Amino acid sequence: MAELGAQAHGTHHPGSAGARNPLQHHFTSLEQQREASSLGMWVFIAQEVLFFGGLFAAYTVYRSTYPEAFAAGSHHLSWKVGFFNTLVLIASSLTMAMGVYSAAIGKKQRVVAFILATILLGSVFLGVKYFEYGEKIRPCFGDGPHTGCLVPGARFDASALHLEGPAAGHAQIFFSLYFAMTGLHALHMIIGVPILLLIAYWAWRGRYSPEYHTPVELVGLYWHFVDIVWIFLFPLLYLIGSH
Amino acid sequence: MSTHHVVSWKVYVAVFLALAALTVITVQVAGHDFGPLNLVVALGVAITKATLVVLYFMHARYSPRLTGIVIASSLAFFAILLFLLLTDYLSRPWPLVAAG
After folding, report:
1. Is position A10 within any domain?
2. In total, how many domains does chain A have?
3. What is the pLDDT along chain A (243 residues), one digit of tens a residue?
4. B84 to chain A: nearest residue by CA?
5. Are the C-beta atoms of A74 and A238 separated by less than 8 Å?
6. What CATH code is carried by the domain that includes residue A56?
7. CA distances from B20 to B13, B52, B53 (A)
8. pTM for the model
9. Distance from B71 to chain A by nearest Cα, in Å?
């Protein structure tokens, strides 16, 4: 993403030929530069697959070891909330894809509008997540509703899960993974929002054209990857206890 | 290959509708008990959705072959991680019972 920072000064006259030449001197063509940038982003995403992969591997081992506790923990999560958030996130992927599409056909205002829509939908997702976390965390401080404390640790309360004995302890492993996996996913979205804002600002300043809009494409790749992670988290965390 | 393969916006809307439909399906099938196939069904739907996102939203279908190699290698390395981990955990007495 070197070309992002390389052109720190925008153009005062959007769309004019006075815009800086986006081609860096060490590339022979814009196409070569674009493919190099895109490859770099894909390698980063490959690394992200393994970053999340460690958590998915831990999930696999513990779920196969403690299936009852995982089913009970999953059953306690609201699938309706997860379902709603899944729809919100894939809608945000649609607006992101439409933003990249608008950049490719040179519709500047639409790029900005679609990226802002993506940020809005991402914020809705995070807002829902905030309330989901809250209802699990607040009881640990003697606050909030009927549901017991679901943060793993000394105050963990498995009574709401209808588990007794060792299985109550195993449910803590489910909630450890729940917080770690959804937390890492949410962190990626929190990092994505300011990057999207920056790209929207640059798009508004007229930096991108049908020939050069690689940053819009790359942030799109990132956002879609985060969507894919959630596509797996939703059934694995929310739906295993439904039967 | 052409630099910019611009896909019609209709493709994106169609992919979104397919993803929304598959999300409904994954909730529906979670209500049925397929026994040991529960996980297979859930992951099958999720993998289908992820494939749609990668191919169309992420343009992998229109990208250089090198992109495909990076995607395949990331999945291969995740498979190695999972395979070696499970050979260990599934072949030993685990979890260990604390010795009284």
Report:
1. no
2. 1
3. 444 444 444 444 444 444 578 899 899 999 999 999 999 999 999 999 999 999 999 999 999 999 999 999 999 999 999 999 999 999 999 999 999 999 999 999 999 999 999 999 999 999 999 999 999 999 998 876 667 899 999 889 888 888 888 888 899 999 999 999 999 999 999 999 999 999 999 999 999 999 999 999 999 999 999 999 999 999 999 998 766
4. A57
5. yes
6. 1.20.120.80
7. 11, 12, 12
8. 0.90
9. 7
